[in-house]
Structures are given as C-alpha cells and as structure tokens.
Amino acid sequence: MDYAKLAELLFPDVTETPEDVEKKYPPRDLPQDAKVTRFAPSPTGFVHLGGLYQTIVGERLAHQSGGVFFLRIEDTDEKREIAGAAQKLISTLAHYGVHFDEGAVIGEDGNIAYKGEYGPYKQSERGPIYRVYAKDLVRRGLAYPVFTTREELESLNASDKKAEVKSREWTEEFAEQQKEEMLARRNFTIEEVEAHLKNGDPFVLRVLASGDGERKVKCFDLIRGELELPENDRDEIILKSNGIPPYHFAHAVDDHLMGTTHVIRGEEWLASLPLHLQLFSYLGFKTPKYMHTAQVMSLDANGNKKKLSKRDMGASMDDYTRLGYAPEAVREYLLTVLNSNYEEWRSKNPDSPYTDFQFSIKKMSNSGCLIDFEKLEDISKNVLSRMTAEQIYSGALEWSRLFDEEFANLLEADKEKAIAVFSIGRGGKKPRKDFGRWSEVKPFVSFFYKELFKVEDAIEGFDKADIKSCLADFAGNYDENDDQNTWFEKIKQIAAKNGFCPDMKLYKADPSAYKGSVADVSSFIRVAVTGRLNSPDLFTVMNILGKAETIDRINSFKESL
Ligand code: GLU
C-alpha cells in the first residue's frame, strides 16, 4: 500500500505537517517541576461533585508548583452541548475558589472568551490541528479509513453502538467475530478508496492497533502506582466522519500541544490508558503523568457503598448551593477527603488559608471517596464558626436572596443589627458552632426579628403566678444602661424576693426549701424574650433587641399565661 498516496487522497486539503504545528506550541517557559494541569469537561451544564474534586487536585498541584491550570472545553459530542453550560461551569467552580489561569474564561460581556497561547481551548475549533496529525498517522501506515454510506452512518448515529456492545454477552465467539471484522476492515485497495471518495462516501479513521489483548502493558498512575492492563488490540476510531475526533485522539493531541504535565481525570478512563499510551507513542509524544481519581461514592438505603450517580442527592453542585453549604466548607471537606493529613494540619492551623497546606499526591487515597453528609456538616460548623460576623452576614444574605426573600429583606433592612446578632460568641478561642449551613441561620436567629418571633418553648413545673410576678419585677427594674453584673444582680434580687434561691450552691444543698433557683427565674425571662429555653447570652440579646422590644415581649408573654 502506498500510504503517502492514501494520506493525500484522504486529506488533500491538509498541507501542514506536525512539525509546522509544533512550532506554534513551543514548550512553556516555567520553573522546573512546575505542573501544568487542566480540567477538560464536556459542556453539559451539570457540575458534578466529582468534577469539583478533580479540579481541586489540579488547581492545587499547578498553583503550588508555580505551574498553570487551564480549562479546555471538550465539545466534540454535539449532542451533549447545552447553551450557557460553559459559563455555568466556570462560575460554579469560581464560587468554590477554583480559578483557571488559561483557557475558557467568562469575558466582559458575559460570554465565553479564551485566554492563553495554547489554544484553541475548545475542541470543536481544533479540527484542522487534529487532521494534520491524523494525516501523518495515515502516511506512516498507523491509521486507515473505513468508508460507510450516508445511510449506514445515519443508522449508526441513531443507535447507541457502545451500549449495544456492552449489553451483549462478551463470548469468545463474539470476540473472534469482532476480530475478524476488524481484520477485514484493514484490507482494502487504493482503487477502492478512490472509488469511495469519488462517490462522496464518508469515512471514519481508525488507528491500527498493534497490541495483543492477551498480553499486559505496564502503566503507571501517580495515585495507584504500577498497573498491568491488557494491551490495546482494538482499532478505535480516531476521527469521526465529521473530521472531529472522539475523546482518545483529542486527548493525546491536545494534552501534548498544550503542555499538560499531569492528566487528572476520573477512573472511568483507566481502562483506555493502554490505547492512550499507544496513541502517544505512535504520535511520537512524551506521555504525561496520569492520575485517575477515585469515584465519588454514596451510601444506599441499606448502607452499602454505591457510585454517586447524577440523579443522587449531592451529585450536583446545585444541591450544595440549595442546601446552603458555604463553598469554603465544601472545599474544606473535599480537601479532608483528598489528603489524609489535611485534617490534622487544619487542627494545628485553624486560621491559615488552605493554600498554605502542602497538597501531596502521596496522601491521596485510591479507594472510592465516600460522601458523608454528617462529616460535611461537622466541618461546615467549624468553618462557619471561624468566619467573621461580616462574612456570615454576606453568606447568609447571598443565600437568602436566592431562596428566602423575606429573610434577605430583614437582613438588609438593618445590617448593623444583623452584624451584632452574628457577632455573639464569635472571635474567641472557642467560637460558638451554631449553624453549619446558610439555611440554618434563619431558624437560629429568627427570634431577633419581630416579624419572625414566636414563643416556641413552654415553661413547665412552675406556678403561673410566680412566673408572672418574676417577669413583672424584671420588667419594672430593667435598665438598658446596666452592665452585665448589675443586670444579673437584679435577677438574683428578684429571685430572692419571689422565693427562688439566688445562689446555686445553696439551692443544690436544699432544693426543697425554695420554689426554684435563680436559673429558673432566668429561664422565665429567656422564654419570654427569645421564645426558647436555649439561647445565646441573654444580656447581649436584650441589648440588641432594645428596651422597648424586650419589655414588650415580657408583657405579652405575661399576658399569655
Ligand atoms: N471530557 C472528558 C470527561 O468529561 C475529560 C476527561 C479528561 O479529563 O481527560 O470525562
């Protein structure tokens, strides 16, 4: 076979050689050991937790080594492309603190723009580049065309070929038949090709597999170590009839030209690694380092681990937004899952930015990452407890604007008050861990707002007349200028006057001698003012509410008894 002639027949319009293309993609000028990583999603509009998980790895490895992290849009499968999906992806990741240096970005007009010298960063715009390399493979006898008719192509597109083969039982007989078909496809003459081209028949390009499925090839994965996988013995399609490659060929060409040093991707690609290594070798490219991240798992109703599917709660990043998780908390959780020593580092460095942590590939686990909402909630409470009142205010406001307009309006109407509320118990060595999600803020602070206040708890086991009398005494003596000591002394006096023991020690020694203790009197006031038996520091609460509202609440509670 005259391969040079075949290449010319198939790609008469391709005049560039791989060397010409290489010149346009010079090696990157980066410090030694700098890592170049990328995220390469299909623009489906769905941002999966597993995607965020991968981008955190890529972002950390690139930025902590002085490298580059870029975004490539893999839109070769037109069926899956959804308008606005890339914008959504970029803004969702940015929300979680994942920013790209290069590739697809959101331009000033809100549309997708591209930044960087190694583009195009959208695969559908890279057709001419792929064709240069495809032609070169044909010229060297490493790829060949398979012609179809338009009708065949249409029926091929209509049925999902992959699913068909997968669901069929893979018998030896079937494998044998496949092999024969494959070998038959390799057999053709230049004259046949010429006749097809003359006829305008479309063709796909297949790589000539040189492997033997019975033999193993050694592969190396930075997370999993050395692996032995069956050699590639299948002539996979590397160029579809529209001239655009499926994933495998595009991966090799793009990651080579764009200078990717570390390919971080989901473990579903592991089985294709021998094919990729074969393509890199045919193309004469240096192989990047591979990291196949573990799949995100969840627990099913019976407590068994299962792959977190797209439909499961917690798969889409929209779920976390809706549930009210702060992006910082989700990121913190994922870092804990990703690096086994992160949690320990965090407990020693509670206030350091996460970027101070030295992310390490060695500390990554290759078993499935289990999404554990209890743990996420715990981490979230810690993260929120370390935020300033101002950060809590803006986080809660941003969430409420989307999901609870009434509360957003209340927060906005009096920012100073909200900041005072969120300042309670904040800033010290042991900050309060009141809420783990923005959606929990409102129920926690609702009693501060007249519009939301209601009495939720009841006082049990005391005489109504005693409660009323204590409350009346408190209201009659309340002075908003008292300091906390004076305020509490007054409560003690009211307790004593009404037959409640003002001193807890004395009370515990002989409880039957009293109607109750000063703690009980405080709880009468607490329920009247906050509607709850548990609340943050009552003195501070009253200061925030102001005298009029405090007295108002005490009087209406008294009347309700
Ligand atoms: N487009 C592929 C995917 O979404 C990219 C895999 C990769 O990162 O190489 O799975």
Report on the architecture of this protein.
The protein is α/β, with parallel strands linked by helices and 561 residues long. Among the domains are: 3-15 and 126-293, Rossmann fold (3-Layer(aba) Sandwich), CATH 3.40.50.620; 389-448, no CATH class; 464-560, Arc Repressor Mutant, subunit A, CATH 1.10.10.350. Helix content is 47%, strand content 12%. It is built from 25 helices and 16 strands. The strands form six sheets. It has a four-stranded mixed sheet. A three-stranded antiparallel sheet has the order 5-6-9. A three-stranded mixed sheet has the order 13-12-14, with no helix packed on it. The longest helix has 16 residues, at 49-64. It is elongated. The termini are far apart. The model has no long low-confidence stretch (mean pLDDT 93). Glutamic acid is lined by residues 40-42, 74, 247, 251, 263, 265-266, 269.
Provide tags for this entry.
alpha/beta, 25 helices, Arc Repressor Mutant, subunit A, 12% strand, Rossmann fold, binds glutamic acid, 561 residues, 4-stranded mixed sheet, single chain
Protein structure class:
alpha/beta
Give the CATH topology of the domain at 3-15 and 126-293: Rossmann fold
Annotation field: number of helices: 25
Per CATH, which architecture of the domain at 3-15 and 126-293? 3-Layer(aba) Sandwich
Q: At the fourth CATH level, what is the homologous superfamily of the domain at 3-15 and 126-293?
A: HUPs
Q: What is the approximate shape?
A: elongated
Kindly state the percentage of residues in helix.
Answer: 40-55%
Oligomer: single chain
What's the total number of strands? 16
Low-pLDDT parts are: none
Supply Rg.
Answer: 33 Å
Bound small molecules, deduplicated? glutamic acid
Numbering strands along the chain, what is their spatial order in the largest sheet? 1-2-3-4
Distance between the termini: 101 Å
The average pLDDT score comes to: 93
